[in-house]
Design goal:
Layout: H1 10-21, H2 25-38, E1 43-49, E2 55-60, H3 67-73, H4 100-106, E3 109-115, E4 122-128, E5 131-138, E6 143-149, H5 156-160, H6 165-182, E7 187-192, E8 195-200, H7 206-214, H8 216-220, E9 222-229, E10 232-239, E11 251-255, E12 258-260, H9 263-273, E13 285-290, E14 296-297, E15 308-309, H10 312-329, H11 358-362, H12 369-374, H13 378-388, E16 409-414, E17 418-423, E18 426-431, H14 432-447, E19 454-464, H15 467-474, H16 477-482, E20 486-489, E21 494-501, H17 509-520, H18 529-544, H19 554-565, E22 580-583, H20 585-591
Parallel strand pairs: 1-7, 11-13
Antiparallel strand pairs: 1-2, 2-6, 3-4, 3-6, 4-5, 7-8, 9-10, 10-13, 11-12, 14-15, 16-17, 17-18, 18-22, 19-21, 20-21
Bound molecules: adenosine-5'-diphosphate and magnesium ion (MG).
Length: about 600
């Protein structure tokens, strides 16, 4: 059985390597622009014809290459960026594998013009299908220009896999966009089929570049994030909850300035938004993670689009906690449909009638209808007696841009579900269930930092479930207990509920257990602890919140609004649906054709 193994010729080896590095025109664009950045350029110009598969030109004003080295550029494993293997664990350049140029040259025709600033003459090289045709002196500007044509002409199989011109073009643009985001100091100009497509002058900082690249809309709806944990520094911008996209393409992650895809980090971003934006919608984010080079392995993917973190759990937590915190504390934007509601007057706590009501009133207000009634201030009631029932005290809170509730007039309830206000910026409509659901969820989350106090049921209630659901419950008994739900497995197809969270006296055990079972069994696998906790709290909040089709008094509405004002994430309900919608005067005037 000997004589079957042969060493592949260099040409074939290069073509195989090219399969990994050079998948399509966009990969060529990425490799060339990265080389320009590595060469210290601060001005890069890219020209694409026919989505890049007709030709790609990348011009830079970087270091240039000396004539003696030009032939080496096209040799496999020839690089000026590392000398030892250990160097790749302490690397600041994009390249180090010395693979891109020979790979590109093996599947296309490459013409290279280059001159170092102090050299009197430049060098021109042309290479076709991996073979150097000529290397000659030539006059040219300082820097390097690489012109790639006949892409995949000698590998028709690969050409067949290319998509339409428009798709390939947008992939090329994506590649440039990512590099431009991470390098604000570099001027970029992109020409497509002879026309200027994109020009980004050198920006003074990342923020400026981000708004240039991501668009004004993102900038207007973004919040900055900044955090540090051990040696990891996280900075960047994330979208507000009202700015969502239909896919995760707008979540950009840069690790030490290198754009990478990382499922764990994407998951961390999504988990911070989980109960704030609708299912199947995605936020946008530009995140820069800086780590000591030794804490991240960049040599795990041929195009270096993936990295391996030494401590990926800690990175995940840094990202999700930072984003969750930034979202919770970000000032709300007035320019949007949803208002932040502020009552100018704080209402005094209700008088305690029974000592056991103490913690109910301490946790304030709206957890039960009964409580809600209590939460109403004498002040408000007296006003309503005085015939100004619906006048919720009008005045813009001084110095604050928030629309205060004090500023809006309550007009009434519509369809026993929506609360309607005349606000200074239009007609404001609040979904009472969505609003209350968010209030309760945030309170539960806060209380669950410690153990939630439970209150035994007078009569334990048996709730039947299917065997799969029993399994999920069996694994979550401790967690449920922490959240104030005392549940025991009862035979093979039921659980018995013995206590519920004391702050939610009015929920029905049967309903809430069924909801939790549905939530937990939604995915094929057991959700992780944090996700399970969120799901259980969301089910509790949903069941405890005022339902639609419930008549509320003006005073109850006042209490609801006051609580909403103090609640983080008050723009959306836990399922991501809006809590409030504003119809501006001009919108209404348009409907009535007054404008
Ligand atoms: P790598 O970037 O991994 O080193 P490449 O195959 O991409 O490998 O490039 C090989 C070498 O060619 C680089 O190490 C660099 O010395 C040189 N080179 C390529 N492009 C440029 C450029 N635009 N300016 C200066 N030098 C370049
Ligand atoms: Mg390179």
């Amino acid at each position: 059985m000997s004589g079957h193994i042969v060493i592949l010729s260099e040409d074939i080896a290069n073509k195989i390597a090219a399969g990994e590095v050079v998948e399509r025109p966009a990969s060529i664009v990425k490799e060339l622009v990265e080389n320009s950045i590595d060469a210290g350029a601060d001005d890069i110009r890219v020209e694409l014809e026919k989505g890049g598969y007709q030709s790609i030109l990348v011009m830079d004003n970087g270091s240039g290459i000396e004539r003696e080295d030009v032939a080496l550029v096209f040799e496999r494993h020839a690089t000026s960026k590392i000398h030892d293997f250990a160097d790749i664990y302490n690397i600041s350049s994009f390249g180090f594998r010395g693979e891109a140029m020979p790979s590109i040259a093996s599947v296309a025709h490459v013409e290279l013009l280059t001159r170092r600033k102090d050299d009197p003459a430049g060098t021109k090289a042309s290479v076709t299908a991996g073979i150097i045709k000529e290397i000659v002196p030539i006059g040219c500007p300082a820097g390097t220009q690489i012109f790639v044509t006949k892409i995949f002409e000698n590998v028709p199989a690969r050409r067949k896999f290319l998509k339409t011109e428009a798709t390939e073009q947008s992939l090329c643009i994506d590649a440039i966009t990512r590099l431009a985001l991470a390098h604000p100091e570099i001027r970029f100009k992109v020409m497509v089929n002879g026309r200027e497509f994109f020009a980004a002058p050198a920006a003074k900082d990342t923020n400026e570049r981000i708004s240039m690249v991501m668009g004004a809309d993102f900038s207007a709806h973004s919040i900055s994030v900044n955090a540090q944990k051990n040696n990891a520094v996280l900075a960047g911008f994330i979208s507000r909850p009202e700015f969502t996209r239909s896919n995760s393409k707008n979540i950009f992650l840069f690790v030490n300035k290198r754009f990478v895809r990382d499922n764990s980090v994407t998951h961390a971003v999504m988990s911070a938004y989980r109960q704030i934006i609708e299912a199947r919608r995605y936020p946008a984010a530009v995140l820069f993670l800086d780590l000591p080079p030794a804490d991240v392995d960049v040599n795990v993917h041929p195009a270096k689009m993936e990295v391996r973190f030494k401590d990926s759990r800690s990175i995940h937590d840094l990202v999700s906690q930072t984003i969750a915190q930034s979202l919770a504390t970000a000032p709300t934007d007035k320019g949007n449909f949803a208002y932040r509601l502020t009552m100018r007057e704080k209402m005094p706590a209700p008088a305690l009638r029974h000592p056991q009501e103490k913690f109910l009133s301490d946790s304030s207000g709206l957890f039960s209808r009964q409580n809600m009634q209590q939460a109403i201030s004498a002040d408000l009631l007296s006003r309503s007696v005085a015939g100004k029932e619906k006048q919720l005290n009008i005045a813009e809170s001084a110095g604050s841009k928030d629309v205060s509730f004090a500023n809006a007039r309550y007009l009434g309830q519509f369809a026993d579900t929506y609360l309607v206000f005349a606000g200074p910026d239009g007609l404001l409509v609040i979904d009472q269930h969505a609003a209350h659901e968010r209030i309760i969820l945030e309170r539960l989350k806060k209380s669950s930092a410690q153990r939630i106090i439970s209150q035994p049921l007078l009569l334990p209630e048996v709730v039947s479930l299917n065997p799969g659901q029993i399994n999920l419950f069996a694994g979550s008994i401790d967690l449920l207990q922490e959240l104030g739900l005392e549940v025991e497995i009862f035979g093979r197809d039921a659980v018995v509920v013995k206590a519920l969270p004391a702050i939610l006296p009015n929920i029905q055990p049967r309903e809430v257990i069924a909801d939790i079972a549905d939530q937990l069994s939604e995915q094929n696998q057991m959700p992780d602890l944090l996700e399970r906790k969120e799901k259980i709290l969301a089910a509790l909040a949903c069941r405890a919140a005022i339902k639609a089709n419930t008549v509320l008094s003006a005073a109850e509405v006042a209490a609801l609004c006051r609580d909403l004002e103090e609640t983080p994430y008050n723009l959306t309900c836990p399922h991501g649906r809006p809590v409030s919608v504003n119809f501006s005067l001009s919108e209404i005037e348009r409907i009535f054709k007054r404008k």
